[in-house]
From TrEMBL:
Keywords, ordered alphabetically: Transferase
Protein name: Amidinotransferase
UniProt cross-references to Pfam families, sorted A to Z: DDAH_eukar
Molecular function, one GO term: arginine deiminase activity
Record carries keyword Nucleus: no
A GO biological process held by the record: L-arginine deiminase pathway
Keyword Plastid: no
Domain of life of the source: Bacteria
Gene3D superfamilies: L-arginine/glycine Amidinotransferase, Chain A (3.75.10.10)
Length: 314
């Protein structure tokens, strides 16, 4: 009696990860800074900010002591604006109680069309925050495609989508060459063909301190911090650069730390009249919100918001 043994004669599925992602993971996607925003991840400040006072605030790189309840109310107001615009607001769970900077979630991940790249903070007192973020992403069903490792340093606010094929990445105190190479490898695997490299100057720690996309093919910049090579490459990609030059607004009231809800509509920290007027002249719809308490930790709207889903631009 003969037996026909087929063994391992099977064929794998040739569907891409992106094709199967909605079925197995959910609708998570980001390849833009300005496409319609649909889901975000934030961390509501908890007990970790209760101990920030006049004798220790500088130890955590805060610029002043912080009033915890007022900070929470300001972030709650931002979350409410998101919900009013149909945006799902998710919160980081089980964050460590010794991490007062954890409200600045943008630093801890960079979202892509196929999932999140989890960063590795530059400052040692922030390390460990990314673990709670990674666990929350897992619980939500957001794929984690990479975690920066080895001697790499990378924070999400050191990268910025320009379009589906183009990402701007800066090196500096919060992103070193090793970390950026790891991120670049993953992005190229996802179909990003243009990586614009730049240096983040000594006077800034992240890109969103001096540049931010505001509309289709429009970026607001603080021109004295943008390198010539970076500006040239952006303009060659068809990006119109809007120069905001009020130093006080850029550096103290964080005028460029805004979040785009959709092309041409942003939420900006209040107290930036010159920048607001400049943007309105460019046809931008500006919503201002009080963020002065949150700013005592050197962050605002954009720093607190990690994008989990933006609709692809058509």
């Amino acid at each position: 009696m003969s037996v026909d043994v087929q063994g391992e004669r099977w064929h794998p599925s040739e569907k891409t990860f992106a094709e199967e992602m909605p079925e197995y993971w959910g609708h998570w996607y980001c390849d833009s800074e300005i496409a319609p925003l649909k889901a975000v991840l934030i961390h509501r400040p908890g007990d970790e900010i209760n101990g920030i006072h006049k004798n220790n605030y500088s130890n955590y790189r805060f610029r002043a002591p912080i009033q915890p309840e007022r900070a929470r109310k300001q972030q709650d107001a931002l979350a409410e604006i998101y919900r009013d615009h149909g945006i799902d607001v998710h919160y980081v769970q089980n964050q460590r109680a010794d991490k007062p900077n954890a409200m600045y979630v943008r630093d801890l991940l960079f979202m892509t069309p196929e999932g999140a790249i989890v960063g590795r903070p530059g400052n040692p007192f922030r390390r460990g925050e990314e673990r709670a973020v990674a666990q929350t992403l897992t619980d939500l069903g957001v794929p984690i495609i990479s975690t920066v490792n080895g001697d790499g340093i990378f924070e999400g606010a050191c990268a910025m989508w320009i379009d589906r094929e183009t990402v701007l990445i800066g090196t500096g105190s919060r992103a070193n060459e090793s970390g950026v190479r790891q991120v670049e490898f993953e992005l190229r695997n996802l179909g990003v063909t243009n990586i614009i490299r730049t240096q983040i100057p000594y006077g800034s720690i992240h890109l969103d301190g001096y540049m931010n996309m505001v509309d289709r093919n429009k970026m607001v910049i603080f021109p004295w911090h943008v390198t010539y090579d970076c500006a040239k490459q952006l303009m060659e990609r068809g990006i119109h650069l809007i120069e905001a030059t009020n130093i006080k607004e850029i550096k103290h009231t964080m005028a460029l730390n805004f979040v785009a809800l959709e092309p041409g509509k942003i939420i900006i920290p209040a107290g930036n009249p010159d920048t607001t007027a400049l943007l309105e002249q460019e046809g931008i719809d500006v919503i201002a919100i009080e963020m002065d308490e949150i700013m005592n930790g050197w962050g605002a709207n954009h720093c607190m918001t990690a994008f989990l889903r933006r609709e692809p631009l058509m």
